[in-house]
Amino acid sequence: MMMDNGNATAGLQTKLANDRQLIDVAIVFDSGYGHTERQAAAVRQGIEDVDGARALLLTADEASTRWNELNAASAIIFGTPTYVGAASAAFKTFQEASSQEIMSKGYLWRDKIAAGFTNSGSRSGDKLAVLIQLALFAAQHGMHWVSLDLPPANCSSQGSEDDLNRLGFWLGAAAQSNTDEGPQTAPPAADLATARHLGRRVAKTALQFAAGRVQARPEPALT
Ligand SMILES: Cc1cc2nc3c(=O)[nH]c(=O)nc-3n(C[C@H](O)[C@H](O)[C@H](O)COP(=O)(O)O)c2cc1C
């Protein structure tokens, strides 16, 4: 016989309350000269804007020695500078290491949330190629890719350099750092705000997935 409705609802609420722990959203990034590091810090702020989410910020080098923490995270956001139209060598080293450490051990990141960001010297600079590479990387791990979800700016006479998503990307967050400026002043505030938006969006999505998984879990057998 089925449990009566009142008891079933109370049971589900207790389960949801018990499961409402902090979720971890990791950021794995590389930065040769500090510009992408500023973008990563803005993504972190976005995660921390969301109640119930906690950020774990790791360089690609650190990440390669902290697989267990990444395995425990609900989401991983990947970030790299664009170097010669691709991810940096240090970030690529991390990606290749994940094949042995994560894929070969049973696709341990399957069904985690993923997203990405990149920064480069030129406005385009072939950053899209890097975001595509990051999305493919996530797909190879069986992760769920989260897009930027901001309308592209600067496509009309009303556009400005202060607009969110001023560079007009959809797949992830993009930033542009003048090559004659240090990371104190580049990338500009609009690109950091765009990165912060991505962090918030990923944290909210990860929380929605966590809640959905609790709802979807089969009811325990009645005794
Ligand atoms: C080896 C190398 C390759 C680069 N290739 C590109 C490129 O393909 N497109 C671009 O727009 N900028 C390119 N840049 C510029 C960097 O993307 C830019 O300086 C960026 O802000 C560096 O970020 P970081 O300080 O986090 O390392 C390159 C820089 C280096 C050192």
From TrEMBL:
<keyword id="KW-0285">Flavoprotein</keyword>
<dbReference type="InterPro" id="IPR001226">
    <property type="entry name" value="Flavodoxin_CS"/>
</dbReference>
<dbReference type="InterPro" id="IPR008254">
    <property type="entry name" value="Flavodoxin/NO_synth"/>
</dbReference>
<keyword id="KW-0288">FMN</keyword>
<dbReference type="InterPro" id="IPR005025">
    <property type="entry name" value="FMN_Rdtase-like_dom"/>
</dbReference>
<dbReference type="GO" id="GO:0009055">
    <property type="term" value="F:electron transfer activity"/>
</dbReference>
<dbReference type="InterPro" id="IPR029039">
    <property type="entry name" value="Flavoprotein-like_sf"/>
</dbReference>
<protein>
    <submittedName>
        <fullName>NAD(P)H dehydrogenase (Quinone)</fullName>
        <ecNumber>1.6.5.2</ecNumber>
    </submittedName>
</protein>
<feature type="domain" description="Flavodoxin-like">
    <location>
        <begin position="25"/>
        <end position="175"/>
    </location>
</feature>
<dbReference type="GO" id="GO:0010181">
    <property type="term" value="F:FMN binding"/>
</dbReference>
<keyword id="KW-0560">Oxidoreductase</keyword>
<dbReference type="Pfam" id="PF03358">
    <property type="entry name" value="FMN_red"/>
</dbReference>
<dbReference type="GO" id="GO:0003955">
    <property type="term" value="F:NAD(P)H dehydrogenase (quinone) activity"/>
</dbReference>
<dbReference type="GO" id="GO:0016020">
    <property type="term" value="C:membrane"/>
</dbReference>
